[in-house]
């Protein structure tokens, strides 16, 4: 029976895999065994019905022929997929015919490997086996052949008469007889030493490699080729150059038995170094020359002469040695000496001798040395300018003979000597000029292109031989290419609170520095100085200066005065340049250092916390207070980005209380509508002396409030009312403006973002736990409010930072952005500053849907798959995402409760049942719960269950008025009810619900950061109990896949400040497609 190896052997890997798939899906029909008993015919259902014929050997265990009438069969070197499918069918039919108890080919091989197939006794333990090679070489000019023969055995070695037979037997697990009484038992085979083991692996790999190459041939030629291997022939293993190299590597320091051209065995070793050669040049017959090579029995073992035998050693030499040796070997292989006429001695000395001297010791008859000038080439190059380029005048020097090869093909005749020129050295030198595009002009080589001239001066001169001496004409700069001159800079803070940066460059005026910066901006590799020398532009200090000017949005004209004025916001970036090894020497004034210290090390600042809040503020909150104070003193802004629950509001209140002054302009806090009265309550609680006003009511009432701000310290308004009342706010002047939940302006095109950026103030601040949710543009938008222009225009920011970071994952761009923004972002995490905060334990609860719920889900899931495929093929990318989100939302609703959108549904909800059990257990244990859901209708269903159970609860969603929200929060924290139902969007931020110690996420939300924010309503400052967080997931639904993808995505944390991410927007097309796979 044909085995799997036979089938694989006649087809490519691709055809084999496709054929197996055809066979498994039942594509083979009408399989019939022909009258001769070893041929088969069948029909295979592909794109059409194809007819296949198979011919096996008489034994039925090898493929002899095959044919298929499909179009691809004529193009394949091996069998097509239809032939493979039929071979698999034949294999199965033969196995079925032999019966369940039949023995297949694999079983026969197994039994054959034992001496007694019935008793299956283990093979006796045998001695270690030696495999010993002999290397044979036949070497002649232009043809070198090498091969191995082997002996194998234990205490006695036997000649391997057929290497292929040895390989096939041992690889098949069969015993291999050595003589009448000696056998290698494969079951207990142990190799005696490293060389034997590695030689066996080497032989086996050569066999498999050849077989793999033959596998791509048609079946008949493949079967024939396996019988007539090009590597293995009887007792011989032929060696290609690569196989010979691999064999020598295995032998290493071991002795090798070598036979050269039928000689007796020689024991040789691999040796380091080079073989010894001696060339003697003597005078004979008057003026003729006789050349003799003493090679000390040198024999090339490879055609390239890179593997050589000499005096019981094998040498590996480089290609240059081999190239130089080849003509000598071809010449002296058949003779011991050659004779040259007197006329031919000149080209011999010029062309041949220089090459031979690199590989052999050379003796030249003294008579030739007197007649021929045998001195090495010494060249001189004279450099000068030629317009924008350079000119080089070469002079070849041989002793006392000098000539210019540009104008003289040969030097003038010498009456006393015949000049022997080193043609190879001359051509090597002239080739350098050719590579760099020089042309002949007068008596010089000229390159008029400036950039190519720079390349020659920086690279070409390095390629010249060491014997070349370079001279410079008087007009030519002694250092034609020099490094960037050292630049020193000083920075101070002037009376206008602007940074003033001055530059100084040794021996170069300031105007030239501006020109150098221009060249750098144009991304040139060099700058051409006024004295026509080149300055290389790759050094760090120039990059630092250019980035400084570019970051500040300045141009060349802004530097014309010799100094650069920058806003104070650039102080942190300048300080970073000075701290890092940028090659720029920057001296910093005392006031500059004070500004930097106050922002970079706020914990060391000396601002006085209001007395009433000193017992209240924790150390990290004092640091935040100092940081806000330092930024405000220098009219700068920043983002207070502390983790949820760390008291950002309290830090701002402390800052505003410390800044309270009689008659001072009021400060403005802009907040989401739901948090308006929360701010008033917090101010009243922590700083009752601050007069705070919430702008609310009708348009007329709000206008009246804004006209009567005398004596008001803090004005609190909402994003919505600000947009409607922008004309009123622009008439006011505010001291400080704070944005709470500043992610509301993450989209710079929204009315809210445009409105807040038009507010006049001394300093602006933002409060948010997630400055970035989706894109870096959100970060830019917040900074555009804090310090307009600091990160450049939106288009420039996108080009310089967002595209390189997001699309190319440019680490350098990410580091530069981080360097610019981090001094103005203060972010602390709970785990870092609240060591005493209790533990938070998160658990995933997997439940099953009810039977009726499962039916509804499966029916809708199948419809969703069809809808998904339609949207993928028809909708645009933007529309596709929206429609896919709608499909997924419906699936998530069914997993929660099909009654959310099917009014006639009464089949129950497995998730509601699971929640009910969880609530009962929690209430019995004295726990208090927050239950979050994206769907407000789901909260209504949960509320109905709670009412039926007689359980008291509060409920909060987007329709809950702000004052009512605050009242519900107070009552819950006082213990009025044990359960609080909360809409994820409406109550995920701004609430302090430390009265709860259990959080339940009824349905998973796309953005894990939003879920974390919701959890932080309970897990925050003031929490005294451990908090348990439960996520309810329905088994076998899209919820399970969403959760798995969320866990996978958690490792992809944003490079800047660890924000949340829009989960759906981050999914690849493959991941979205996986959501719709059953």
UniProtKB/TrEMBL annotation:
Residues 50-91 form the SWIM-type domain. The keyword Amino-acid biosynthesis does not apply. Residues 914-1071 form the Helicase C-terminal domain. Keywords: Hydrolase, Metal-binding, Zinc, Zinc-finger. Residues 629-789 form the Helicase ATP-binding domain. GO terms for molecular function: ATP binding; hydrolase activity; zinc ion binding. Pfam families: Helicase_C, SNF2-rel_dom, SNF2_assoc. Coiled coil: none annotated. InterPro entries: Helicase_ATP-bd (IPR014001), Helicase_C-like (IPR001650), Helicase_SWF/SNF/SWI_bac (IPR013663), P-loop_NTPase (IPR027417), SNF2-like_sf (IPR038718), SNF2/RAD54-like_C (IPR049730), SNF2_N (IPR000330), Znf_SWIM (IPR007527). PANTHER family: SNF2/RAD54 HELICASE FAMILY. This is SNF2 family N-terminal domain protein.
């Amino acid at each position: 029976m044909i085995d799997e190896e036979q089938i694989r052997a006649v087809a490519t890997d691709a055809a084999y895999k496709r054929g197996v798939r055809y066979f498994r899906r039942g594509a083979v029909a009408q399989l019939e065994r022909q009258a001769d008993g070893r041929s088969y015919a069948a029909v295979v259902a592909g794109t059409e019905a194809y007819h296949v014929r198979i011919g096996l050997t008489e034994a039925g265990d090898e493929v002899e022929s095959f044919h298929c009438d499909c179009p691809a069969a004529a193009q394949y070197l091996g069998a097509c997929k239809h032939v493979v499918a039929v071979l698999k069918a034949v294999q199965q039919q033969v196995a079925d015919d032999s019966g369940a108890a039949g023995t297949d080919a694999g079983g026969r091989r197994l039994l054959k490997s034992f001496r007694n197939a019935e008793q299956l006794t283990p093979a006796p333990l045998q001695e270690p086996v030696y495999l010993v090679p002999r290397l044979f070489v036949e070497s002649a000019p232009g043809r070198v052949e090498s091969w191995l023969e082997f002996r194998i055995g234990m205490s006695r070695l036997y000649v391997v008469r057929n290497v292929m037979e040895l390989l096939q037997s041992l690889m098949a697990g069969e015993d291999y007889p050595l003589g009448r009484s000696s056998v290698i038992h494969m079951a207990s085979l142990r190799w005696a030493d490293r060389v034997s083991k590695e030689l066996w692996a080497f032989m086996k790999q050569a066999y498999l490699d050849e077989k793999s190459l033959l596998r791509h041939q048609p079946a008949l030629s493949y079967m024939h080729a396996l019988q007539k291997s090009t590597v293995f022939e009887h007792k011989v293993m032929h060696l290609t150059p690569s196989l010979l190299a691999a064999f020598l590597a295995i032998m290493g320091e071991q002795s090798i038995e070598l036979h050269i051209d039928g000689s007796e065995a020689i024991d040789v070793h691999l040796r380091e170094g080079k073989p010894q050669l001696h060339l003697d040049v003597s005078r004979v017959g008057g003026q003729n020359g006789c050349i003799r090579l003493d090679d000390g029995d040198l024999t090339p073992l490879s055609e390239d002469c890179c593997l050589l035998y000499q005096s019981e050693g094998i040498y590996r030499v480089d290609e240059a040695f081999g190239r130089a040796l080849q003509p000598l070997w071809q010449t002296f292989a058949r003779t011991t000496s050659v004779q040259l006429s007197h006329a031919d001695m000149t080209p011999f000395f010029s062309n041949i001798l220089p090459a031979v001297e690199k590989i052999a010791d050379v003796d030249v008859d003294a008579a030739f040395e007197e007649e021929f000038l045998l001195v090495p080439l010494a060249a001189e190059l004279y450099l000068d300018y030629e317009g924008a380029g350079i000119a080089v005048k070469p002079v070849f020097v041989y002793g006392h003979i000098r000539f210019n090869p540009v104008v003289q093909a040969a030097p003038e005749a010498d009456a006393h000597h015949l000049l022997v020129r080193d043609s190879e050295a001359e051509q090597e030198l002239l080739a350098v000029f050719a590579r760099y595009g020089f042309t002949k002009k007068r008596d010089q080589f000229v390159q008029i292109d400036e950039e190519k001239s720079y390349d020659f001066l920086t690279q070409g001169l390095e390629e010249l031989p060491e014997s070349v001496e370079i001279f410079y004409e008087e007009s030519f700069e002694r250092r034609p290419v020099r490094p960037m001159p050292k630049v020193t800079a000083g920075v101070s803070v002037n009376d206008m609170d602007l940074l003033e940066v001055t530059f100084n460059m040794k021996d170069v005026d300031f105007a030239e520095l501006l020109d150098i910066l221009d060249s750098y901006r144009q991304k040139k590799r060099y700058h051409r100085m006024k004295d026509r020398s080149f300055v290389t532009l790759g050094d760090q200090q120039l990059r630092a200066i250019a980035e400084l000017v570019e970051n500040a949005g300045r141009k060349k004209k802004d530097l014309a005065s010799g100094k650069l004025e920058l806003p104070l916001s650039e102080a942190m970036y300048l300080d970073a340049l000075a701290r890092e090894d940028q090659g720029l020497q920057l001296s910093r004034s005392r006031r500059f250092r004070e500004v930097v210290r106050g922002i970079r090390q706020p914990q060391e600042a000396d601002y006085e916390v209001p007395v009433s809040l000193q017992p209240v503020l924790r150390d990290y909150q004092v640091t935040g207070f100092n940081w806000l104070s330092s930024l405000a003193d220098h009219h700068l802004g920043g983002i207070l980005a502390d983790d949820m629950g760390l008291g950002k509001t309290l830090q701002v209140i402390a800052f505003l209380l410390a800044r309270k002054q009689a008659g001072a302009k009021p400060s403005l806090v802009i907040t989401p509508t739901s948090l308006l009265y929360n701010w008033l309550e917090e101010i009243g609680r922590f700083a009752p002396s601050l007069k705070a006003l919430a702008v609310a009511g009708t348009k007329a009432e709000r206008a009246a409030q804004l006209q009567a701000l005398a004596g008001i310290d803090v004005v609190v308004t909402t994003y919505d009312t600000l947009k409607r009342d922008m004309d009123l706010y622009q008439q006011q002047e505010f001291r400080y403006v704070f944005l709470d939940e500043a992610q509301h302006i993450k989209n710079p095109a929204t009315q809210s973002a445009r409105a807040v950026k038009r507010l006049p103030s001394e300093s602006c601040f933002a409060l948010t736990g997630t400055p970035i949710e989706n894109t870096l543009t959100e970060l830019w938008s917040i900074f555009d409010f804090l310090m307009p222009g600091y990160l450049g225009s939106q288009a420039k920011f996108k080009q310089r930072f967002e595209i390189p970071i997001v699309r190319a994952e440019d680490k350098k761009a990410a580091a530069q952005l981080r360097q610019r923004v981090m001094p103005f972002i203060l972010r602390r995490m709970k785990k870092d500053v609240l060591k005493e905060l209790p533990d938070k334990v998160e658990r995933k609860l997997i439940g099953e849907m009810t039977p009726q719920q499962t039916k509804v889900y499966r029916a809708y899931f199948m419809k969703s798959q069809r809808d998904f495929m339609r949207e993928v093929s028809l909708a645009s990318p933007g529309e596709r995402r929206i429609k896919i989100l709608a499909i997924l939302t419906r699936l998530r609703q069914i997993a929660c409760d099909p009654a959310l959108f099917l009014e006639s549904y009464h089949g129950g909800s497995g998730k509601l049942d699971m929640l009910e059990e969880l609530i009962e257990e929690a209430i019995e244990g004295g726990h208090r719960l927050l239950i979050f859901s994206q769907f407000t209708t789901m909260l209504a269903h949960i509320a109905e269950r709670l009412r039926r159970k007689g359980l008291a609860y509060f409920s909060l969603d987007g329709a809950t008025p702000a004052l009512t929200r605050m009242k519900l929060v107070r009552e819950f924290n006082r213990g009025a009810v044990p359960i609080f139902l909360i809409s994820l969007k409406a109550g995920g931020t701004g609430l302090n619900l430390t009265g709860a110690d259990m959080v339940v996420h009824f349905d998973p939300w796309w953005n894990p950061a939003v879920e974390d924010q919701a959890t932080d309503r309970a897990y925050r400052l003031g929490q005294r109990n451990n908090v348990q967080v439960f996520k309810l997931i329905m088994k076998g639904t899209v919820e399970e896949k969403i959760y798995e993808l969320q866990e996978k995505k958690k490792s992809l944390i944003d490079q800047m400040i660890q924000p949340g991410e829009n989960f759906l927007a981050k999914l690849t097309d493959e991941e979205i497609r996986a959501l719709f796979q059953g």
